[in-house]
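Hi everyone, sorry if this is the wrong subforum. Our group has a chain we'd like a structural model of before ordering constructs, and none of us has done structure prediction before. Sequence below.
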Amino acid sequence: METFWQDLRYGVRALARTPAFTTVAILTLGLGIGANAAIFSVTRAVLLSPLPYADTERTVAIWSRWADFDKTWVSEAELLDYRQARSLRDAGAWSTTQANLTGANAEPERVGAARVTPNVFTALGAEPLHGRTFTPDEEIEGRDTVVVLGHALWQRRFGGDPLVLHRRIRVDGRELTVVGIMPPGFQLPTDYGEDFAEPTELWTPLTVNPSSPERGNHGWYAVARLAPGVTIAQANQELRAITAARTREGAYPEAMRFGAFAVSLDDEILGTVRPRLMLLGVAVGFLLLIACANVASLLLARAEGRVREVAVRRALGAGHGRLVRQALTESLLLSIGGAACGLVLAIVCVQALSSAAPGSIPRVGAAGVDGAVLLFALLVGIGTTAFFSIAPIARLVRLDPVQSLKEGGQSTPGAARQRFRQTLIAGEMALAVLLLVCAGLMVRSIWAMQHVPLGFDPRGVLTVRVALPDDTYSTNERIVSFYERVTAAVRELPGVTAAGAVRSLPLGSTIGDWGLDVEGYVETPGRNAKGDWQVVTPGAFEALGERVVSGRGFTAADRGDALQVALVNQTMAARYWSDGNPIGRRIRMGSDGTRPWITVVGVVQDVRHNGITTTVKEKFYIPHAQFHLATGFAPQAMTLVIRTDGDPRELANPVRRAVAQLDPSLPVSGVRPMSDVVADTMAPSSFTGLLLALFAALAVMLAAIGIYGLLSYLVSQRTREIGIRMAIGASHGNVVSLVLRRGLVLTGCGVAAGLALAFGATRLMQALLYGVSPLDLVTFAAVPAILLVVAAAASYLPAARAARVSPLLALRSD
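Answer:
Right subforum, don't worry. Here is the predicted structure as tokens:
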């Protein structure tokens, strides 16, 4: 132990004598360790921490699919079918919405809500903190007068009062009895998805009618547990058998190719996030390797400068073991310093990542630097010690003390050692190339997404969500009247240039389709007419910047007593009318012959609704004032869209006041600029691309430092040679060329190796890219050019210093 403390004290003194070397080594290691610790913290919070469910590997989400849809929701009748499956237990369903919470001597509040069948909680293995969840008889209509509250809502609105149990509260105008409080952290699986800006905090029973269930309306999420001993593959086999049997019975057209499948909750929630975090994890791993290579190169250079010191210690009796232990101690001190520096960097990075990460990355807000991250940083530090100490220790072991003392410690490093250091630098450059190519592909992908025509203009638009309760707005006429009055009031606000309301906000909510009868269109099996259905008020197109390409838009004259009209998008016009001109033609919502025909009066430019990169489908628009005439109900939840020439955020409070003047009990939600809605859609790719670009930039910087350090060392070792060259006539240009050529040759070897690695590795990024090939020629051509410029700049300073060597002084110093 005494020997260890001696080595430790000596190591501290030795490192203190070379503050520049020590500082650069610790900062370099801190950069690599800190980046790895930060990504580990996020990965641990997102991927490694258990989800708030009993068994995510044996709990499955169930989805439908058919010819035009790879993945969509289930219907009521299908849920009842799956409850009969022997491979599944506790098959349940839910639908998400928002609810108005009023009363309780508090301001009206709009909260995320869901209607769930009682066995959803059982399937998820979720137990209430207080009270109970729903009983099976409460999924029967008329008995669904109960509610379960989320923990955050219970704390926020009711002050955590346990006496709220069995109290009646007002939800969407209904008096419901609170029967349970869920524990902190409970969320439905869909609350982790990209479509939900906020989690559900309130749950009411979803009623099921087993006597006449709906089969065509696919709008429910479904979940179940696997039966004991059953695998997901076996459950999927039974689901295929069930849907095939229903198809043979005529429930679905043969050409529809209807089916269902199950996927584990773990894959459902984390499946899209996992490859992004794995990519970032690999990137920071490469960054750490580059940092270690730099430190190893620094240690080798330092070892060359300490040859005489080590030779003297060997001559005085120090054995290999003592010298190796001393070298390891110094390396360990550097690692501990790097780990400490890295932890500070990790704390800053984790806070930045938690605030900057998109909501589609679940639980990222829970990331933090705790004991596990501290242990990870220390283990990484110890591992790096072993990595970058190998070469310097090998140098000490092979040192000949007699020869070193004869040479006075001034020997030129052997060719093998020079090749090793050059290999390290070339390896750094290769990894930097790989990171830079990956980052370049992500940046190109983001650029391509930013230039996708959206079909609307998000600039200067504010969005505000409003939902009307059933008790106050019990008739279609009251609903229509309110939205006519509120849009008129908002248009009068100073700075507003256009205003309207839409049922489903583009890129802000998922839109579904509705079956249609299209006059004159001949349907084929499995190719029934349908279209995504949108409900709008006059002024909505102008507010969103959607363009009517032919015909006319909606006006205030399109009321309930006027001709029923519709608009269709370009895709729908081309699909169902052979001449591409639907104006004056008619459609009917659904196959019920008693429903009225609707005349198409205009064609709207295609709009990206469910995602920037998703396929545009057929879509039709109905005026809000007429929608109930075709379906029997007027949408109660709409999003106001308000355009202004100024900052849309400045309209938030005036719009709130305008709504409150019409109905003080109405809460508003989703108040945000439309540009934020678009940005949120791109956030996962932008987040990944930004971090990759940052890591790539750091890698290039470290590689440039490595080249600079190597060439500076070689110049110092070859001072005499350079002096002789200049004495016999070599010009400054010749010397600069000599050093530059060495740096560029190293860079070229590293770039070639890096491009070879990238050629194979980038194919694994295919699923993360849009509008760009994994072998994009622009990226693969730009990266070498960038690195050659950086390498030339890093090589020039040592080259210029070499050119300033005085031949006389160089020869005299020898």
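For your construct planning: The radius of gyration is 34 Å. The chain has 23 helices and 22 strands.
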